[in-house]
Amino acid sequence: MKMPRASGVLLHITSLPGPHGSGDFGSEARRFVDWLAEADQQLWQVLPLTSIGSGNSPYASPSAFAVNPLLIDLQALEHCGWLEKDGGIEGAFPEDRVAFERVIPYRMRRLQMAWRGFESICTAAEQKEFSDFCTQQAFWINDYALFMSLHAHLETHSWLEWPAALARREPDALDEALAAHAEAVSFWKFCQWYGHRQWRGLKRYANERGVSIVGDMPIFVAHNSADVWTHPELFDLDEMGRSRAVAGVPPDVFSPDGQRWGNPLYHWDVHAATGFKWWIQRFAATLAQVDMVRIDHFAGFVCYWEVPAHQPTAREGRWRPAPGQALFEALTAALGPLPAIAEDLGAADPEVFVLRTRFGMPGMCILQFAFDGEESLFLPHAHHHDMVIYTGTHDNDTTCGWWDKTTEDAREFTCRYLGMDGSEIHWQLIRAASASVGKIAIHPLQDVLGLGTEARMNFPGHASGEWSWRVAAGQLMTSHAQRLAEVTRLYCRHKRRSSDVPG
Known about the structure:
The protein is an alpha/beta fold. Helices cover 40% and strands 11% of the residues. The protein has an 8-stranded parallel β-sheet with strand order 9-6-3-2-1-12-11-10. It has a 4-stranded antiparallel β-sheet with strand order 5-4-7-8, with no helix packed on it. Helix 4 crosses helix 5 and helix 11 packs across helix 12 (324-335).
């Protein structure tokens, strides 16, 4: 992937301000794009746009293809005339957190009302656009909409709890369910149509202002998903549909029991026999939404840690090979060179480097990991051009929070290495990332604002209480944009204009 020298900011959509309890595709997102342009940033990196699942995580989605309905801008639905204004929301939600237990029922209730309004007064052109979208997306949306409808109706935690005929997708049972839940199926399709439509508009707004979108693709999917229910043959399941083995990573110095993620593993032989059709559809759908995609846990395409499903931890696992080269050959043959970033953090197998470089994908570097010792490959003097440099990611503490908790030795070495006193560690790491030879530098917004641990987005391994941080209205100021623009231009990461070239 050819990369211009650039920088950007990491901020998920839900973390934006807004009146309905969480960020969405609305006016605050456009305001953030304007701020990025003012700050001379060329990239906006988001987390997966798919629906949230267990623990409110966007990495445990009920579909690899569906956008999160909670991201739909409700005010736009009001402007369409499909939804009456809600005058009772003032002060109903906290500004600095997503209160999911209140936001989810509120937003879904409003979306139901908008669907009824759409059914009543939509124009013929709008109805055709909706119908055409459903036809174009038929390879996933029909099963997804039925899956979501059945979940809501049966009030279960997993499709394994459904009546056996539905769990096994017997044709007669599916036909009966479609007839019984036709209205609900149409509602879920409506949310997808309008959610995709709004996102395309927001992406277009960003692109027109010189800001490209970096998306995110988890390597695994949730067991409780339309993908696994619809295509059980693609996953390592027993005859009852239960996972025989699950994904995770082995023990290390940070996790003595390893990490047992619990996602079902792929039947790679079956994927290969189909020419990796599902993967091609998945990448095509993702790249239609974003300009570039970060592939999470890229090392898992070379080999993965297989944990027997009955084991409570990831200790009792084994390494298994994955067909990374064959997969990416199929993907590039179908889609061309992939504009992708390979999340290769902690990958010890040299084949991971071989795979990502063969297909032109930059790897990742986290500066917070650089200062534990003088031999770290994450130290700026060891960087390479094909790296994306982060101060931290959504899984890290903020830089200020990390600084408060790190060892005295690490702080002393950081100050010696960077030639500073640590009084503004967040800006010092932003400057170090910007100065790197790595073609792309990404800064979490929390670091630009100098926020502490209270603004951390996620703590890996925590089953609840994560993903809820929001930037408050008014917290993001022009002064932040100006300072970031100064660093960006100093290290030539801004978009070059003819006036920047000496005459």
